[in-house]
Amino acid sequence: MRTYLISLLARTPVHVGAGYTDGIIYKPMRRERNTGFPIIPGSTIKGVFSRLWLDNKPNDHKVSRSDIGQILFGSLNEDDSIHGLLRFSEARTLAFPVRSARGCMAWVTCPLVLKRFLRDTELDDLLNKDDLVSNIFSKQLTDSNAVFMKNSALSIFSGNDCDVVLEEFCFRYLAELPVSLIALMQALFKGDPVWNDVGQRLVVLNDSMFGYFVKSGCDIIRKILVDDSLGVVRDNNSVLQENLPSETFLYSTMNVSDAPDSQRSLIGGKLPEELFIEKVNRKAFQFGADTTIGLGLCSVEVINISKLKELSYS
Q: What is the pTM of this model?
């Protein structure tokens, strides 16, 4: 089984909802239960990509997948036991955008997120890489300090002190951002001019402050509900919706199985991931709700994790 990384960079706010609640936020984002970090479920990712292989036959109101679509994603028929060769994990938040007093915007992450990312992408050996250990994993990150480039676009100097100010919080410079981490992050999405500046904008916070920002820093919008029968706003019926902000970086993994002999002729002798990458790589797709009003647009890049390992260990 081969593993690929799917990088998702939000161009517009994204709403992948967790249903309706009785709280202040009527339509919250989907989040992990244990951490509260925003996610996009694997079923959503699979559903978006599998639509590229729908087979709409004339005069047939049923939606079905093409033969190649069934090989890659499985059959839509619940009574059919055909499973797909592609398996998708949920998309986890790797870098979250936050307002900065200088440089406009920063991306924040934390040791827990980085460790999970390295584990998910089979880059565990980087946990022992000298500059990552000395500058991040062995440092005593607190609620008032952070790891970032001292001469970054975010840095504010006062005498010998260097700080970044994110929202209403000031973080004192603790250590330089590891060169190996910058190189790895830049390699995750080479096709976007904004993400190319990640080294200048990345700030590593402690786990609790990262958790605070991803829980309180999402976009909150008010949606006005209209009565379809009357065409007017319903009485006392506006709701708050939580959206993941634009420029959020998420990642998913895709595991690929080899096609059995009976299917190889149907895919023209190609590897399953080759068919997938041809249609998906470096293109934009919409995830979640409200696609007709511009939400959910994400740039997508597919990366062979074995190539990522070569870069990381060089």
A: 0.89
Contact criterion met (CB below 8 Å) for 233 and 226: yes
Please give the residue range of the domain that contains residue 49.
2-16+30-217+244-313
In a domain, 239, yes or no: no
Domain assignment present for 235? no
Tell me the HSE value of 63 on the side-chain side, using a 13 A CA sphere.
7
How many domains is the chain partitioned into structurally?
Answer: 1
Nearest-10 crossing angle of helices 179-187, 305-313:
160
- In sequence order, what E strands does the chain have? 2-10, 39-40, 54-55, 64-65, 86-88, 91-100, 104-109, 145-147, 156-158, 161-166, 169-175, 202-204, 219-227, 232-243, 249-256, 283-286, 297-304
Whether the CB-CB separation of 215 and 208 falls below 8 Å is answered with no
Give burial (CB, 10 Å; 0-12/13-18/19+) of 148: buried
Residue with tokens 């990150």: 141
In a domain, 183, yes or no: yes
Question: What tens-digit pLDDT sequence spans the chain (314 residues)?
Answer: 889 999 999 999 999 876 666 666 767 888 999 999 999 999 999 999 999 998 766 555 666 788 888 889 987 776 566 788 999 999 999 999 999 999 999 999 999 999 999 999 988 877 777 778 778 888 889 999 999 999 999 999 999 999 999 999 999 999 999 998 999 999 999 878 999 999 999 999 999 999 999 999 998 888 777 766 766 666 667 788 889 999 999 999 999 988 776 677 667 778 889 999 999 999 999 998 888 888 999 999 999 988 887 765 55
Whether residue 236 lies inside any domain: the answer is no
